Amino acid sequence: MSFPAHRPRRLRRTELLRDLVRETRLSAAGFVYPMFVCSGGRVRQEVSSMPGVFQQSADQIVEECREVESLGIPGIMLFGLPETKDARGSSSISSTGVVQKAIEAIRKASLKLLIITDVCLCEYTDHGHCGVIENGEVANDPTIEILAEQALSHARAGADIVAPSDMMDGRVGAIRKKLDQNRFENIAILSYAAKYCSGFYGPFREAAQSAPQFGDRRSYQMDPANAKEALKEVAMDLEEGADMVMVKPALPYLDIIRRVRERFDVPVAAYNVSGEYAMVKAAAQKGWVDEKRVVIEILTGIQRSGADTILTYHAKDAAKWLKG
């Protein structure tokens, strides 16, 4: 009986062998943990569609950040749930806004964490869209003026990175200019460069209380059918001054992550979004999947596709599992 000269199974026989030749090495050092901050004190309310994720006041955010830091996760992403909303998202630029106060509280606690802030208006507008409404449509240029002020307020509060997620044209350039004019040239921009109009955002809209009150976001978020357009969006954002770029969501767009990784020599992030998280949690609760195994497989796949950084609600659990 003739045996093959090449036997790939030789290097799969034991865990030590598999670990020795593993191509993709997942690590908590590449995770960012998204968090939702609200007003008040001692508030910690679980999001019904996202088990283990909470809407929290700044004092509680600080306590969870201590845990995040202890797990070796280097950064968090803050989303705000303001007390008041209006047509222009005015509270988003306030120095006493929920995100701004949370940044200050984390800084006061002297935690070694990168603070990244979402820059968008959907959480702050009473209509739930990501920009100012004029004549029934989201007006691009008036919106980016507010976004630039919002980013500046986050920088003043102590953010390390601002992350515009609105998908308005030209917002990266406007934010870069505003930051530089105010001597925040060292604040980095992580652009949601290829953000698709996705059905996977549902649970987030509960968590952030940001569902649009009319219409949808197809006029500014990307068509899920388009790939070449994503490369154009990334190129434009980099030209305007983005330091890092993001693809969102992750799982249905692994091909986009790969294309961006191959085309551009910059840090690439991917957002493992709320719907992706909720599906795993729901299936795990019913005993249909092994949560630990599935989560590690998903995150490994996202990294293998080309993502340097993964924003994920699984970050804390995954960090614990990776520690063994």
Q: What is the CATH homology-level superfamily?
A: Aldolase class I
CATH topology: TIM Barrel
> Based on DSSP secondary structure assignment, what is the total number of beta strands?
12
Approximately how much helix is present in the residues?
25-40%
Task: Specify the overall morphology.
Answer: globular
Mind telling me the C-alpha Rg? 20 Å
What is the number of independent domains? 1
CATH arch. level architecture: Alpha-Beta Barrel
Class in CATH?
Alpha Beta
The assigned structural class equals alpha/beta
Note the beta-strand portion: 15-25%
Please report the distance between the alpha carbons of the first and last residues. Answer: 43 Å
Biggest beta sheet summary: 8 strands, parallel, barrel
pLDDT averaged over residues: 96
Key features?
single chain, 324 residues, TIM Barrel, eight-stranded parallel β-barrel
Molecular structure report:
This protein has 324 residues and is an alpha/beta fold. It has a single domain (25-323), classed as Aldolase class I (TIM Barrel, Alpha-Beta Barrel). Helix content is 38%, strand content 19%. The protein has helices at residues 15-20, 58-70, 98-108, 140-157, 171-181, 202-207, 228-240, 254-263, 274-285, 291-305, 315-323; strands at 31-38, 44-46, 54-57, 75-81, 114-119, 132-134, 137-139, 161-164, 188-195, 244-248, 268-272, 309-312. The protein has an eight-stranded parallel beta barrel with strand order 1-4-5-8-9-10-11-12, surrounded by eight helices. It has a two-stranded antiparallel ribbon with strand order 6-7. Strand 10 (244-248), helix 8 and strand 11 (268-272) form a beta-alpha-beta unit. The termini are far apart.
